[in-house]
Amino acid sequence: MLSGLTIEQSANDKSLWEFTALESGGKRLLVALACDCRRGLPVCVSAVILGILLCVLVRPAPASQPVAKNVLVLHNWSSLPQSWTLMESTVRARIPGQINFYVASIENPRFDEEVYRESMAETLHRGYGAVKFDVVVAATYPVLQFARQYREKMFSGVPIVFTDVTHQEGQTMWSDVTGVISPLGMRETIDLALRLHPDTNTVAIITGLTEWDKRWLAVAHSELLRHQDRVREIDLIGPADLKTLERIAQLPVNTVVLFQLRPDDFTHPAVDPIEILAAVGDLRPTYSAWPGLALDRGGVGGVYRDLWKDAVLNGEVVAKVLSGVPPQSIPIVRDYDLQTRVDSRALQRWHVPQSALPQGTVVEHRQLSFWERHRKYILLAIALVVAQTLLIRRARKRRAEAVLRESEKCFRVMADTTPSLVWMCDSRGKITYLNDRSLAFTGSDPGAGYGDTWTDYIHPADLENVKETVSKALETRLPFSKGYRLRRSDGVYRWMFDVASPRVNGDGSFGGFIGSAIDTTDQKLAQQALERVSGQLIEAQEKERSRIARDLHDDICQRLALLSMELEQAHRVSSKSPGMGLEEIRKHCAEIANDVQSLSHQLHSSKLDYLGIVAAIRGFCKEFSKQCDVDIEFLEKDTPTNLSKEASLCLFRVAQEALHNAVKHSGVRRFTVTITGTEDAVELVVSDMGEGFDVETAKEDRGLGMLSMQERIHLVHGSFVVDSKPGQGTKVIATVPLVVEDEWTLEDENTEEAPSMTGMA
User: Fold this and answer.
1) What is the tens place of the pLDDT at every residue in 126-156?
2) In principle, which of 510, 512, 654, 753 could form an S-S bond with 426, CB 3.0–4.6 Å?
């Protein structure tokens, strides 16, 4: 059953009727009738049907039926803007029940006269005296002043909500009203004009004689004072007439026009202000703080508030008042958002590039681009190309998959037949592939070595080093190599040398590593055997040198000394016999004895055996400097006395060989020999500031002197470095450890920790 029925004529469309029911069933029925009426059914038929339904269904409305809300809108515009409908819909969406909107325009040239305002207040009171208003909406600041001044006369006690009031006008506001204060954009519009036309030296303001014109002319004056050092101001004040057009034609070339002359529908001026605006727009760049006085009128544009946003904000405030909230309890809404809007046609006329516009500018009447004009055809062509591309890609993908399968098959065949142990891991280091030889090496278990189980086959002494190398490689994603011991299926550990390179997935991402390992145990054993033979040869050489040195020192030297003494004695006896030359023979024998003794010391220094490495090298430096007539500076610091015989002999031979080479090739006569001891090693440095040489070239030539020094240092597990560059001298650095670890052999590979070979490539 229907609980009530309201029939109201719409204020916007007087030819239609609105029917509103309070129950859903009846609402659906009556709305359908209204739609039929709008389709053109005869009014009499509709009236008969409506009368029958009213007689049958309608009953008196209960006393609790909501009372309709009444809203009066006062404005001084020529017509309501389109955004006003959004304000009404916002109110209706928030307030249930019926809401009646009444609109009254009080625009008149005499509005500034108090007599006219009093007459208008009386007219509104008589015209709406029978309507009880719940809220009055005052649009623009002059209307707000009028409504508040004559509220008691027109509609006593009715709340007032204002809109379209600028920040300049809203600086002083009353406590019993509320509403929305919006920005004007006068300052921003002037700044925009000067930004888009940097050569401007004059700003012309075109305005009228009304109070509205005078008020905004003062605002424009205050804003232009900020640019008084850059531009001058010309005011064209007066009604729209032919004189105004003549004055506009006489404006300077670099002039920007600020247009504030509003159309007047009451005074009927001789020339329409819109015609003046069009003429100005053709002559000079024209801007306005009001969109209706620039856009679509020949002007460039300006900076404006968002009318649709203000309509929503105003509707929300009206809805709060209608819900019973007093105006003084509702804070005034202050909107600060502005939007730059320009006409692309005017931009082209004045050669303003769109790149000069501020970010977020709305460009109206923009010429459609090629894409916008032919978008449908382009999209169709793109769709055809995409479809064809997909078909081609699908065919290529199938061929690529076939090639990939063949490639994988070839890879597996090659990997399974290679003598190396081939493996692959993912980006986390987990083994994902092992070739047949790897599986045969570790055992018959098909899952052995996969995932993280590969660590079970690494020698415990090498495991941490290998894991650290792999972890670092996974971080850097660079190639690496490592040496380690790997347990074979029979439990024997074999030395492996592993080389790995990064691999990438199809999308270019890091996929892990692929590597191959070869068994180097036999090579290591052969290398150790060669080192032992080399050591034995050097040891035999040293023994032979020692024997020859002893023979020279104990036999030949003694005999030469005895011969020298006998010759001296014979010389004394026969000194009176001239011409014998025995003294010269004695001197020659003494020189031979000294040379033989020196040769003996070079072959084997007795000081090295009895006084140690420091005394031996110091003595050799003195003897060698006298023999070769060179200057050798010897320096020593903290050299230990417990250096092994092998290490001492090694350093002594290096000092000998280095000095011989320096005297022979350096081209200088001054050298420095330094021996220094640390906690765990002894370092020998032989240096000069001579010609120097290229070390890499010398290594390729493989001179016996450098090779001999390097081999001797290697036998005592030391390090040997030659630092030299052409023209920058030479420095030979030999370092031997104080304690030498026992060398690894195949017999103790399962018990001893071998020296690590792990390293980054």
Assistant:
1) 888 888 999 999 998 889 989 888 988 888 8
2) 512
DSSP state of 184: -
The predicted structure's pLDDT at residue 285: 93
Check pLDDT > 50 for residue 221: yes
> Can you tell me whether residue 212 is helix, strand or coil?
helix
DSSP one-letter code for 489: T
Both tokens assigned to 165: 């009031």
Amino acid at 530: L
Residue at token pair 């790897």? 438
Distances (CA, A) of 394 to 397, 398, 507: 5, 6, 17
Question: Which of 315, 340, 322, 320 has its CA nearest to residue 331?
Answer: 320
CATH of domain 5-181: 3.40.50
Instruction: Answer positive or negative: Cα dihedral of 316, 320, 322, 328.
Output: negative
Select from 275, 266, 145 the least CA-distant residue to 215: 145
Is the Cβ–Cβ distance between 155 and 136 less than 8 Å? yes
In degrees to the nearest 10, what's the CA dihedral of 33, 36, 40, 43? -20
Give the whole-angstrom CA distance, residue 578 versus residue 488: 90
Q: What is the DSSP letter of 556?
A: I
CA distance 91 to 89: 5
CB atoms within 10 A of CB 178: 24
C-beta of residue 343 within 8 angstroms of C-beta of residue 296: yes
Q: What pLDDT, on a 0 to 100 scale, did the predictor assign at position 1?
A: 31
**According to the 3-state scheme, what is the secondary structure of 397-446?**
HHHHHHHHHHHHHHHHHHHHHCCCEEEEECCCCCEEEECHHHHHHHCCCC
The alpha-helical segments, DSSP class H, found in 284-420 are: 307-322, 344-349, 370-373, 375-417
Q: DSSP string covering 446-475, please?
A: TTTTSBTGGGGGB-HHHHHHHHHHHHHHHH
By CB neighbour count within 10 A (0-12 exposed, 13-18 middle, 19+ buried), where does 277 fall?
Answer: buried
Q: Which two tokens stand for residue 426?
A: 């993912």
> Burial, 15: exposed, middle or buried (Cβ in 10 Å; 0-12, 13-18, 19+)?
exposed
Tokens of 136: 């009055």
Tell me the per-residue pLDDT of 690-715, one tens digit each, with 9 for 90 and over: 888 888 777 666 556 777 788 888 88
Pick the CATH number of 184-304+337-364 from 3.30.2130.10, 2.40.50.140, 3.40.50.2300, 3.40.50.720: 3.40.50.2300
* Alpha-carbon distance values, 479 to 185, 474, 498, 679 (Å): 65, 10, 11, 36
> CA-based Rg of the chain, rounded to a whole angstrom?
55
Distance CA 169, CA 167 (A): 5
Architecture, CATH, for domain 607-761: 2-Layer Sandwich (3.30)
What is the residue-wise DSSP string for 75-139?
E-SSS--TTHHHHHHHHHHHS-S-EEEEEEE---TTTTSHHHHHHHHHHHHHHTTT---SEEEEE
89 — alpha (psi -120 to 50), left (phi > 0) or beta?
alpha
CA 96 to chain centroid, in Å, comes to 53
Contact criterion met (CB below 8 Å) for 733 and 681: no
Q: What is the mean pLDDT of residues 43-61?
A: 46
Specify the residue for token string 């000294």. Answer: 594
Residue 546 is predicted with a pLDDT of 67
From the number of C-beta atoms within 10 Å of its C-beta (0-12, 13-18, 19+), residue 268 rates as exposed
Between 549 and 727, residue with greater pLDDT: 727
